[in-house]
Amino acid sequence: MDDSTPLGVVLICISSIGVVCNGLAIWGIFALGKLKSTYRPTYILFLQPLFTDILFLLTFGGYLAPSVMQHESIFPPSVRQYASYILDSSQSYCFANNSLSHVFVATVLLRTTIFTGRTIQIAIAQHFLALTICISAQFLSPCCRLEINYWGFNLRTVFIPGVPNHSLMYIRLPQRVACSVIPFVIYCIILLTTRSISKNIHLKSNEVKKRRSQELRFTVQFATIAAFYTLSWGLFSLLPMFEFSHHLSWLDGASIIFALVNATSNAVAFLLNDVRNIRLLFWRKSITYLLLKACTIEKQRLNHSLFIITLLPSLIDSRIVVMDDSTPLGVVLICISGVGVVCNGLAIWGIFALGKLKSTYRPTYIIFLQPLFTDIIFLLTFGCYLAPSVIQHESIFPASISRYASYILDSSQSYCFFNNSLSHVSLAMNRFVYTVLLRMTFFTSARTTSIAIGQHFLALAICISAQFLSPCCRLEINYFGFNLRTVFIDGVPNYSFTYIRLPARIACSVIPFVIYCVILLTTRSISKNMHLKSNEIKKRRKQEQRFTIQFASIAAFYTLSWGLFSILPLFQFSAHLSWLDGASIIFALVNATSNSLAFLLNDMKSLRTYCLKYSSPRSGSVSLEMWSPTVFLLLLFMIDRASGMCFEELQPLSSQSKRVVIAPSQTETCLAYAYRDTSCVLLGNIINKDLTCSVKDKNEIVAVKCDEITTSTKPSPTPMGPGSGMSKLPECLKRESPSDNPFLPISQCEAIPAQYGIVCNDDQCYCEDTNNQLVVLDASNNVVSAIAVLVCRKGPRWEVISPSTKAFVYASTVHVGSPSCTYIEPPTHEQCMCDMPSIYWGRRNGDNLCGAGKIDYWEDYDKKKHTTPLVCTAAGWTADGVTVKPDTVNCI
Fold first, then answer.
1. Is this prediction's pTM over 0.85?
2. Which of 410, 419, 402, 421 shows the shortest CA–CA distance to 468?
3. What's the fold here for domain 4-273?
4. pLDDT, tens digit, for every residue of 394-437?
């Protein structure tokens, strides 16, 4: 088989991945409403190269690659010339449009104010300018046009004898240089002025600062794409100048590979930047789709590894640098091992730092931790022993201890690999028990720890049996062969592989595969039964399914890894391709990193929040962490939604109600608990000054039906005195509160700095003015939640309490200094206050639920998402003229 077939396959694979990525990016921009957000101009310009990049990729994947493989054009001779002109011009136009996009995107980041209604005109002008450059270079210039060259694996210049290449000198090269230099200068200006501008932004509103942060993130993203574009066209111009020998002729296609990757870079940058939103969008669509997406990510990671391996020979040309395959391969092994150790270390740290071992999912994380520790040992073995030995062509240990060190390291990597293998079975069984058998209490702490210890002992037993007890044959690290080799004994079959290693690997792939298939097949039927369960059980069910997808993806890559690990050594590569012997090790190292990568990607937001908490410049300042699912588990089964609150004067304050803020299970309720002012309020709107209720026990909850207080004509009821028992008023309802996490005196939590409007008594901190509302910000000064009160809970730690999603949300660990009291304009009609939804990432102002911002979407009580506008009327909130009950509102 000559070089054309594998190169054609590589081109088709890269083009296909690029088309999928660009398609996903375009879909994501529309599906996530990016064109309706504040950053609409940026995304309009960002969209333009995505469309033309798809056309560029299809040109090479659908025309060049098949033509390369069959050594002739795929078009019949009658239309071949015309098709060539069209496709040559098409790729030239697409590349020019991609180039110009860097200039326009960089400009929009430098001067955001000019890109308002002009953006669409500028985008159209970009396409016309790209088309002009293409026509000038291909047809109007005296010489020389570019054409797709399938027998040379790239593009070639059609020279005319005696005529200089005007097209390159006066059109293509100046355009490419300009499209690299202009963005470079702009990004340098942005970088140099960031500090001074940030000082001015400090005095601006939170919305301005939030937008500034997003613009800087865009800048970093687009600057990276522009840098790769420069590298791409530079290599695209330089590589064809080299005259490669016959056996390296496939390197002529390297320039095309760089161009294809460049055509994918915009999409990859968007997908990585919005990976969380896209993942949530996929999850809402279907579990099966998420499984396919996870497999696609693994395939992209594999193709990226193959891409790096394929391009290594381009760095090695014996006519330029005298260097054999061992040095670059050793460097690659060290780099991959280093990245793997860092990722595994971060994953271990994240599990402990985020309190995963104290959460509901503790058993899952105990099992998940086991391969992370042994994977670090596995990676260090190859990164610190094999790689240096490969580079220097001999063992790094002295001859006196080399043999013993070899035995120890060979056994160590074998044990680590089998522990990784067995972890897939343990995790799959864990998923089966939770998602199919629904045995939530089966994996106790003691039982899970015993399973983890048993897994280590079983891995150790398999390792010892394969390496020492079997008659033949053990594996050893082979630094001169760049991988592992089997130490054969003449005349003795390989019992170790046949009866131990191969069955263990197959079992560790087949068992998880069968289990995950069972889970997939039973998901639909079990979900129907879940429909009648509590919200917390359904929420936990979704989290268990996310774990399942994550672990199934890891298991799939593990199977691919050991399969290639077993198959690749069977090939006898020629001398100039000897470095491919190390490919099996590279897959093994990537497999040892896959667990940690899955965790880091899955918990990226939590880790980022945790890091921001400790990197804040203010001493003792923290941001909001993830809301605790454990609290929901305790509360959701017994409470309903609360939309407001009522306050009552109780004396003496310390001996009366502890202001428990969990609403009873009523259709529409507002809270009643002690406050220094005798007034009934609904999040800033005074309804009835005389409406009060009393309690006789500090553990009771008092609530008032909202529909009883929406008219001002009703006579004011006479309140019962403290300690008089159950109130006779129909508005007053009581229920016992849980005491598993009691309130603490305010003095036990860290003091809140003196700030106008916030006052504290012995049980809570609140806004002194009942027309005001506590607003909590995150580390970036973005509004997280507009809340009612701050309380001190077991820890001790501050917690915010706010009406939300059929319960009061406890957002743990509020940083002192972040809350502030802000006036909230009441809505036009009081009924809207009773039906007030929970608002995330926005601050209400009167009837505008998101204030100065816009509603991204809102959810009803059935968790169905809507984008229709919400209007406040006398009947409550309406959408398209129909009265609705919004539960949550997400702002942008």
1. no
2. 410
3. Rhopdopsin 7-helix transmembrane proteins (1.20.1070)
4. 888 888 888 888 889 888 988 998 998 999 899 888 888 887 88
